[in-house]
Amino acid sequence: MDRSFRFSHELRVRYSEIDGQGIVFNAHYMTYLDVAMTEYFRTVLGENWLEKYKNTFDIALVKSTLEFQRPARLDEQLSIWCSVNHIGTSSFTAAFEITKKNDPAILLKAEQIHVNYDASEATSVPIPADVRSLMQQYEGH
Predict the structure, then answer these.
(1) Distance CA 9, CA 78 (A)
(2) What share of the chain is helix, strand, coil (3-state, %, to 5)?
(3) What pTM did the predictor assign?
(4) Quick check: 33 and 110 in contact, CB under 8 A?
(5) Strand residue runs (E) in the chain
(6) pLDDT value at position 2?
(7) Of 65, 69, 118, which is closest to residue 93 (Cα–Cα)?
(8) Which positions fall inside the Thioesterase domain (predicted)?
(9) What pLDDT does residue 4 have?
């Protein structure tokens, strides 16, 4: 695991998430990343971030790259590590690693690009200055 990750979220693999091979079905990893990203913002922007930023910070996923390295299995506890490693004008790049809890072996590496989106105008908009500042402070850059 990349030791530069400051944030992680834990979850346990549920029966409904495994496939016929007895491993987590690949599409569920996208859900895991989404849950971790949501909890990352809850940590960085505050418990009420969805309400506070509902008119100014609404992200949409525009790109996701996943690299599967090892399978996760039923009832394993996973740590989803998340870091925002680049913040642009209207978008940011997040890096992820998934490991088993207390085991540094990487199960999955991922990178996602999210854009701040104005749904009423169907266009990207700048990331609010206070959101940018809080992410930069948390990440140390």
Answers:
(1) 8
(2) 25, 40, 35
(3) 0.94
(4) yes
(5) 7-12, 59-68, 77-87, 91-100, 106-118, 123-124
(6) 52
(7) 65
(8) 21-103
(9) 81
- Nearest-CA neighbor of 107 among 71, 64, 80, 59? 71
Long-range contacts of 122-125 (CB under 8 A, 24+ apart): 124/90, 124/91, 125/90
- What are the structure tokens assigned to 124, written together? 């990207």
CA neighbor of 28 nearest in space, from 18, 38, 20, 37? 18
| CA nearest neighbour of 2 among 121, 108, 130 | 108
Tokens (6 digits) for 52: 């506070």
- Measured CA to CA, the distance from residue 112 to residue 29 in angstroms comes to 12
Architecture of the domain made up of 7-139: Roll (3.10)
Provide the token pair at 141: 């850059």
Strands 123-124 and 106-118: antiparallel
What are the boundaries of each domain within the chain?
Answer: 7-139
